[in-house]
Write a structure and sequence with these properties.
The chain has 362 residues and is an alpha/beta fold. The protein contains 13 helices and 15 strands. Helix 4 crosses helix 5 and helix 4 runs parallel beside helix 6. The chain is elongated, with a radius of gyration of 25 Å.
């Protein structure tokens, strides 16, 4: 008989080996005909870490997650879960490993004919755990996700957010080492999404659970992840701490994905920019860390009086780090002024780009 400790007892246990890798992928490739769904993916996820993998539709996210849980076979490369290479395992050998991996889905995948408690307990029933023990575990997890009063309810009576909480509880039933989230908030409204992300972060903190999020929503990554990896055409093209990637995205795909949540040059200004000349040069300025909150523009005004006007921008905080993006206009009457402004800003660790020239401003 399997024995279970309470959620409180699990939380009280010290987390050891915090730097241990739960996931390691090395040069993983998977093709479908002429299409390279995964084209040499190498990636590591440490115990207790939350990693967000973000990309557009068709970038390879779904294939990656299916390779991680053994539903797809990589053509080449190595996939290690808790140190064990799974790429050559037979189906029977994969079964115990899959119990170490929990999965939550975009559309919940709950069984409508079963109660909430039976849905949560289902992985344990399949595993052969006695009914009393699996229901005890189900009730512990429903309490953890805030649905203790819904144990006897059926999924059809629940809201989308409640269904996803049931899905999370079910994914935790067998005490996995790794939780995979496949677009788990895409079908939810923004308020519900925030509550689900807060729940996942709380579970990560309490249980030391490693979480890998597959998403196309940068807001999801921003709200919960420690690190982010950007996937494009089956390759990881950018990777780093969330605040660092948000502050200084290096790849065009990353800048595009961030477009909805980073300050952007107002459309009416962007639409009239010229590449060759105008009354003002428009510069974008990206900053992170102490300089993002400092007296940057006051110092710039003191060093170069009447050298710019602030057009747009703001400061955000990601992972407790200030991250800023501003747009300024520099008069072109002095052809050397934009270069002087850019030099001053880069000396303050800013990333500066001349976006073009405003042809209409007087």
């Amino acid at each position: 008989m399997n024995s279970f400790v309470s959620t409180t007892e699990v939380e009280a246990q010290p987390q050891t080996g915090a730097a241990e890798e739960v996931v390691r992928l090395t040069d993983v490739k998977r093709r479908f005909g002429a299409t390279a769904a995964l084209d040499g993916i190498s990636l590591q996820v440490k115990r207790g870490e939350i990693l967000g993998i973000i990309g557009r539709s068709g970038a390879g996210k779904s294939t990656l997650i299916r390779c991680l849980n053994g539903l797809e076979r990589a053509d080449s490369g190595e996939i290690r879960i808790e140190g064990r290479d799974i790429t050559g395992l037979q189906e029977q050998e994969l079964q115990p490993l899959r119990r170490r991996i929990g999965m939550i889905f975009q559309h919940f995948n709950l069984l409508s004919a079963k109660t909430v408690e039976d849905n949560v307990a289902l992985p344990l029933k399949i595993e052969g755990v006695a009914k009393a023990e699996r229901l005890k575990r189900a009730h512990e997890l429903l309490d953890l996700v805030g649905l203790a009063d819904k144990a006897k309810a059926y999924p059809t009576s629940l809201s989308g957010g409640q269904k996803q909480r049931v899905g999370i509880a079910r994914a935790l039933a067998a005490r996995p080492a790794l939780l995979l989230s496949d677009e788990a908030t895409s079908a939810l409204d923004p308020e519900t999404t925030r509550s689900i992300l807060a729940l996942l972060k709380d579970i990560n903190r309490k249980l030391g659970l490693t979480i890998l999020l597959i998403t196309h929503e940068m807001e999801v990554v921003r709200g919960i992840a420690d690190r982010v990896a950007v996937i494009d055409a089956g390759r990881i093209v950018e990777e780093g701490q969330v605040w660092s990637v948000f502050a200084n995205p290096e790849q065009a795909i990353t800048r595009s994905l961030l477009g909805g949540i980073r300050p952007q040059l107002p459309v009416h200004i962007a639409g009239r920019l010229s590449a060759t000349g105008g009354s003002e040069a428009i510069l974008s300025i990206d900053l992170a860390g102490p300089e993002a909150q400092g007296a940057l523009f006051a110092d710039l005004s003191a060093a170069l009086p009447r050298s710019f006007r602030l057009v747009h921008g703001g400061i955000d905080h990601i992972q407790n780090q200030p991250v800023a993006r501003f747009f300024i206009a520099v008069p072109t009457r002095d052809p050397t002024l934009a270069g002087k402004v850019e030099q001053f800003l880069t000396s303050r660790s800013a990333r500066v780009e001349v976006l073009g020239y405003d042809t209409d401003h007087v």
